[in-house]
Structure formats: structure tokens, C-alpha cells
Amino acid sequence: MGNYNPKISPFTFNLIDPIERNTIGVPTGGWTAIQFRAHNPGVWFMHCHFDVHTYYGG
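Structure for Plastocyanin-like domain-containing protein, as requested:
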């Protein structure tokens, strides 16, 4: 938790053995970073359950 700092925060990411999950809860005003391997062609689907975001295609 805390504020995202693009100069410091990426160095704290666990890129060796991260937790695998399909849902991420983000608190109000919070942030999360995701990494995924797009190793197969096609359309990738991501979405949010907030209706206001559907206007943006999420």
C-alpha cells in the first residue's frame, strides 16, 4: 500500500515468483501493478466491475 512512485516502486515488485491470481482488489485511491506474458496472438480481455469504466471500454 502507499503511493505509487515510478522511480522507486518498480524496484519493489516481485518479478521472480509472484502470486498468480485472477482478481485484484484495489482500495480507493490505491494502485496495483500487473505483469503478464502475451505469448499467444489474439485479443486479450481485461475488465473492471465499476460501471463508470464501461464507457471507456473496460
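The chain has a mean pLDDT of 76.
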